[in-house]
């Protein structure tokens, strides 16, 4: 495991994509795939794929390519998707509800075991198979169930205080949607900030490039 701890973050960011893609191939009944085919389908270069997978010891065989199921399983192990890290979600509003009901935590290494909010009107509501509890219950819940990760779907201004409390309760990792740049003064706390808007801006950038090229082409044509 320590070997995987030094892998660059750009490689780690690509691993879920490999995992997802290999899962699609498996569903289609594909048993093996050459690195060239894999690269064409994933729109990565074959050498990029080889380099990425070599970080973990390499899984391909010369002249055979990759065994889809084996490779997916190995990547899954590296990602830890076979684990069941106890996870709690704070903020049972629109986003919290959507995440709790539409993200399959169980197949991604985490198990959602509790949902909390400080709005009395939401307490007792059912979200998926969990019942929303009051944030006052967090300490007792953590003492009993020892969750290790927390999903934050609360407003910006509430984030730091909640995160500080959760760290004291043993939380080691935050999946933070709150648009607040969480700063935690401990080296062993993991923060994964998510900004869906960034993905939209990437789309906007690509559209901007595409339409600018088209505009330039039509300008040249008209001249
Ligand atoms: P919402 O208002 O529907 O839900 C927020 C929930 O947090 C409410 O149920 C509220 O009672 C609860 N809450 C507030 N303070 C709390 C505290 N101290 N402890 C526990 N619960 C508390 O808002 P929505 O739409 O669900 O958004 C939640 C947050 O996520 C916002 O900050 C929003 O800006 C952000 N967001 C981030 C996205 C991203 O891509 N990162 C996308 C969409 C929203």
Overall 3D shape: globular
- The computed structural class is alpha/beta
E-strand count = 9
Q: Any low-confidence stretches, pLDDT <50, length ≥5?
A: none
Order of helices and strands: HEHHEHEHEEEHEHEEH
The tally of helices reads 8
Distance between the ends: 61 Å
In percent terms, what proportion of residues is strand? 15-25%
Helical content stands at: 40-55%
Outline of the structure:
This protein has 223 residues and is of the alpha/beta class.
Quick tags:
223 residues; alpha/beta; 7-stranded mixed sheet; two-stranded antiparallel ribbon; 8 helices; 47% helix; globular; binds 1,4-dihydronicotinamide adenine dinucleotide
Provide an overview of this structure:
The chain is globular. The protein has helices at residues 9-27, 35-42, 46-54, 68-79, 94-102, 138-145, 156-168, 196-222, and strands spanning 32-33, 66-67, 85-90, 110-117, 126-127, 130-134, 149-152, 173-176, 190-193. α1 (9-27) crosses α4 (68-79) and α2 (35-42) packs across α3 (46-54). The chain has eight helices and nine strands. 47% of the residues lie in helices and 17% in strands. The strands form two sheets. Strands 5-6-4-3-7-8-9 form a seven-stranded mixed sheet. The protein has a two-stranded antiparallel sheet with strand order 1-2. The protein is α/β, with parallel strands linked by helices and 223 residues long. 1,4-dihydronicotinamide adenine dinucleotide (NAI) is lined by residues 90-96, 117-119, 122, 135, 153-156, 158, 162, 177-179, 194-197.
List the helices and strands and how they pair.
Layout: H1 9-27, E1 32-33, H2 35-42, H3 46-54, E2 66-67, H4 68-79, E3 85-90, H5 94-102, E4 110-117, E5 126-127, E6 130-134, H6 138-145, E7 149-152, H7 156-168, E8 173-176, E9 190-193, H8 196-222
Parallel strand pairs: 3-4, 3-7, 4-6, 7-8, 8-9
Antiparallel strand pairs: 1-2, 5-6
Helix pairs in contact: 1-4, 2-3
The structure holds 1,4-dihydronicotinamide adenine dinucleotide.
């Amino acid at each position: 495991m320590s070997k995987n701890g030094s892998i660059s973050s750009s490689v780690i960011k690509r691993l879920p994509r490999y995992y997802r893609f290999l899962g699609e191939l498996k569903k289609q009944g594909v048993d093996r795939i050459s690195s060239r085919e894999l690269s064409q389908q994933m729109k990565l270069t074959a050498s990029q794929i080889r380099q990425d997978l070599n970080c973990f010891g390499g899984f391909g065989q010369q002249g055979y390519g990759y065994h889809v199921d084996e490779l997916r399983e190995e990547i899954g192990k590296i990602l830890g998707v076979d684990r069941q890290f106890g996870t709690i979600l704070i903020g049972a509003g629109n986003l919290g509800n959507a995440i709790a009901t539409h993200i399959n935590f169980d197949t991604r290494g985490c198990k959602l075991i509790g949902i909390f909010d400080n709005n009395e009107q939401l307490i007792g509501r059912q979200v998926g198979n969990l019942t929303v509890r009051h944030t006052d219950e967090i300490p007792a819940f953590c003492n009993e169930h020892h969750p290790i990760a927390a999903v934050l779907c609360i407003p910006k201004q509430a984030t730091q205080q909640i995160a500080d409390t959760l760290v004291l309760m043993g939380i080691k990792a935050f999946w933070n949607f709150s648009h607040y740049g969480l700063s935690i003064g401990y080296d062993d706390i993991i923060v994964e900030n998510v900004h869906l808007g960034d993905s939209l801006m990437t789309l906007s950038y690509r559209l901007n490039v595409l339409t600018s090229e088209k505009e330039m082409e039509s300008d040249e044509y008209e001249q």
